[in-house]
């Protein structure tokens, strides 16, 4: 996205590899929330 700073943390269950949550910090973080919710919903 043309920005050099930011942070994404993906929390998963190590046994099942299910995505439990996502932390997104930085510019345009709100644009990435929709993508993260798809990963969390795929349970």
Structure description:
By secondary structure, the protein is an alpha+beta fold. It has one domain (7-41). Helices cover 30% and strands 30% of the residues. The chain has one helix at residues 29-41; strands spanning 7-12, 19-25. The protein has a two-stranded antiparallel ribbon. Strand 1 (7-12) and strand 2 form a beta hairpin. The longest helix has 13 residues, at 29-41. The protein is elongated and about 35 Å long.
Low-pLDDT sequence parts: none
Q: Which percent band covers the strand fraction?
A: 25-35%
Give the terminus-to-terminus CA distance.
28 Å
Considering DSSP H and I runs of 4 or more, what fraction of the residues is helical? 25-40%
> Largest beta sheet: what is the strand line-up?
1-2
Question: Can you write the helix and strand succession as a string?
Answer: EEH
How big is the Rg?
A: 11 Å
The count of helical stretches stands at 1
Average pLDDT metric: 83
Overview in brief:
The protein has 43 residues and is α+β, with helices and mostly antiparallel strands. It has 1 helix and 2 strands; from the N terminus they run ββα.
Describe the secondary-structure layout:
Layout: E1 7-12, E2 19-25, H1 29-41
Antiparallel strand pairs: 1-2
Give structural attributes:
43 residues; alpha+beta; two-stranded antiparallel sheet; 1 helix
């Amino acid at each position: 996205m043309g920005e050099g700073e930011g942070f994404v943390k993906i929390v998963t269950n190590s046994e099942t590899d299910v995505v439990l949550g996502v932390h997104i910090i930085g510019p345009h973080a709100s644009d990435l929330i929709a993508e993260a919710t798809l990963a969390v919903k795929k349970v």
